[in-house]
Hints:
By secondary structure, the protein is α+β, with helices and mostly antiparallel strands. The protein has 3 domains: about 5-95, no CATH class; about 115-300, Jelly Rolls (Sandwich), CATH 2.60.120.1440; about 310-380, Phage tail protein beta-alpha-beta fold, CATH 3.55.50. It is built from 9 helices and 26 strands. Strand 4 and strand 5 (about 125-130) form a beta hairpin.
Amino acid sequence: MTEQQFKELLEKYERGTATAYEARQVEEFFKSYVDEALDEGLPVMGSVEDRKSELLNRISRPSRRMMTPKRSSAVWWAAAASIMVAIACFLFVYPWQQEPISKTVAEAEIVPGSDKAILQLSDNSIVTLDSANQQRILQQGASLVTGGGGKLVYNKQDESAEPVYNKVITPRGGQYELVLSDGTRVWLNASSSLRFPVAFVGNERVVELTGEAYFEVAKDADRIFRVIAPNQDVEVLGTSFNVMAYADEPMIKTSLIEGVVNIIPASGKEKAVQLRPGQQSQLDTEGNLQVVTDGAIIDQAVAWRFGMFQFDNTEMKVVMRQVSRWYDVDVAYEEGVEDLELVGVVSRKSSLSSVLRVMELTGAVHFEVRPDVIIVKPGRKPGT
């Protein structure tokens, strides 16, 4: 593809006039391009025009990998209809070409989170889960359970038995994948828990969530799937969505990728709303429920599931709450950082020092890393 052909294709994509095949070409190109950069340790930051310019400058000399999409999937890194336009709005920043602003940041060799959790069995005993390749095999009520390699799988055996409940709990700095007995896949983010029956009995499938999880619900027209979170229920037959319900966040946010879900607040079914793909419900602590339609918001909400931090004019304290959970660190703030916002994408596989250095390079913020806490300070002004 020539540079001019790609420019024309990109214009069609942004106008919404590209065919399904053309849109897929653009999406796969950007996905491979960003994958290549992230694998090389390059963060993704910057402005809309710079990002487009950088991409177009490299069209005439693309790598083999950039021109060969790695894979195609119905649901990948985010809401496929919009996320690549968002990715196209960032510029790579090469941190090794500049001196680190903070020596304490450069020395903060704190590794990112990993696949780890604990499994609480029906008798309250505990099994430690991690990313080791070894297999653990348990018999829990009506299901045969296999674990290891960062995933726990419940294989349905007999649904006639009485319900037996297990619970998976991820610590700060941990995440874990779970396959329920009906085939539903759940990815738990850090500082989260999911309580569930080892086999679903009756005319509905019910799980209980605290923290954050991404769901791909197995279709079952006869049994609705319900996610009970603090102050709300989510009802669905088969779809993909993300629920963020941390106690330290001001809102419970449910982001829909595929299908249809009903959001039922604790205040009653009369206030329920129905979400369509690309929409997010936001329920605050006062019980106020609103629906937002914004592809960028959905992209940010599900980026963690695909191994990314993604920010789009995101408040500093929101950013640092994510950092705190994933890197298992505490955060404190100096005056003057409350109104700071960040834009960018960076891999969750990066070390803490890399993530903080990238944020410092924006000039908006400065960090002091102590043994027990990260201090967030206003950025240095040019020339100081």
